[in-house]
Fold:
Amino acid sequence: MNWKLLLGFVSNLIDKISLFFGSFASFVMIALVLNVAVVVVLRYVFSVGFIWMQELYIWFHATAFLLGACYTLLDDEHVRIDIVYRSLTKRKQALVNCFGVLVFALPVIHLVYTKSLPLIRRSWSVLEGSVEAGGLPGVFLFKSLIALFAILLGFQLLSLFFKNVLVIFTTQSRADR
Amino acid sequence: MEAEIFALIMFGATIVALIMGFPVALTLAGSALFFAYLGDWFGIFNLGMLNVFPLRILGIMKNEPLIAIPLFVFMGVMLEKSNIAGDLLHSMGRLFGNLRGGLGISVLLVGALMAASTGIVGATVVTMGLMSMPVMLRAGYSPQLSSGLICASGTLGQIIPPSIVLIVLGDILQGANEQASMARGVLVPEPVTAIDLFAGALLPGLILVSLYIALQIALAFFFPASCPAINEDTDNLQGEDKSPSIFAVIVPPLILIFLVLGSILAGIATPTESGAVGAVGATLLAFSKRKLSIATLMLVARNSVKITSMVFLILIGASLFSLVFRGFGGDSMIEEFLINLPGGKVGAFLVVMLVMFLMGFFLDFLEIIFIMVPLVGPPLIMMGFDPVWLGIMISVNLQTSFLTPPFGFSLFYLRGVAPPEVSTRHIYSGVMPFIALQIFALGIFWMFPQTILWLPDLIFG
Structure:
């Protein structure tokens, strides 16, 4: 019995982390809108532009969609082709999810994480900055977003897996009785 | 040869896997990765090719034109959540409602303009269905006509600028065009941008809306019972808030949309810049109507994050899919197949359109565009098709597919939110005349390519 409580607990904990990053990404989204709007006003009203400001909104954009990905999964808003899925029983849906996490999603997360690490390490070792004059420093942080994205989404996938394992086992035990 | 058969199996298996219902982005990437490892095991795939995948992701992160997507999403979600879109529909309905068929025309116009351009047909049709179906049924519209109007305008909204689908399509066609030009020895091809596609989609969009409206008027004339005028006494739209001026509700959002579109088409602003103006404009509009609370703002931001994340994760997943598909030589196989088809370039075009139409029965706009256009785009452009024309034809073709029973996407989703008195049969028969109009319009765009190319040529010379 204990392992079910443990799975539930871990899954809840992960959900809270994803929720936090979802809220963070939402603030970044508002910052993105304001940032581009300010660039537009500066360009068309005052005819000035700053490279760092244009790079900043690229950062905001990437941060919003990469760090928001785990939160999107938490709310089940990564679009599914649900012609078949919607008509399945809860238990079969849970099987689809478990299968998908193990066979499709986690290997991809592993690939993104391991293949991005050398790229990120190289960037950190030279403390890479923008190639543009007047651009933002800290491109190594920007590149690190890829690994952070993989970690956060990976954990949320684990949470999804745990939740669906629980669904499978609870529905089964009910059927047994 | 063996590798190419692998590519075909991978393609088929991925589509089957998608239908299982696990999130699209992860299924696309995961299925491709599975076949990459399998191919490696058989010695026909070089896993080293996967090393560039993080660079692809980095490329997507730094892709400036695609930043228009979150901005337009924010604008659309803001207009929807602050109820500006709903109010617009009600006011237009009041304005035209005392004419037979007037409410239907209002639904068409608002749907085509406001359909939150998310690139997800389902979401749009659900929103439109919830917003306008009860109003039309209460006004005495036949369930068939109501269903047809909602499905047609909801799917059309996906391809009327500023639409996410066109922004994505612009990005992919640009790559396809570069590839095709390189193969032909042109080193500096004319760029294809989202602006070209916005300009190219405008006239076809207007033609389709006009055809829909003409149909509605004809129905009002020949079958008046299907779309009665709103009865002043019993109508719920009236009376509840007789705001001093209907125009105060209708005009500001329309000005916002025309401002955003106009500045792009006039070549003054990029889609990203206009998107920011649209997003801020929609927020100010909501604020001025006292419909903007902190809670609403956060709700809009959260929903925008989710839609944006969803779109970009598919983009990332699809880029791994095409990386592996290319690794197996699948792209050159498709190119050879298309070039060797009987019927030359027309034959190749028709086959591609047919395949996409069939894919539209089980995949959505973004998936089909992400998977198919990078593969079939370069050979078709090499055969001499104009990339902008091609893009719009593909969009209208897919839109038609989403309307077509028994599989059409929009029909399923409308079924899900329609009240029980609307039967599936009503929905199927309701969309039939609209499908006929779609096919008619495709014929016009085929016979007269200038309907698509005139405006982009005018703007960009």
Q: What stands out?
A: The CA atoms of residues 139 and 146 of chain A lie 12 Å apart.
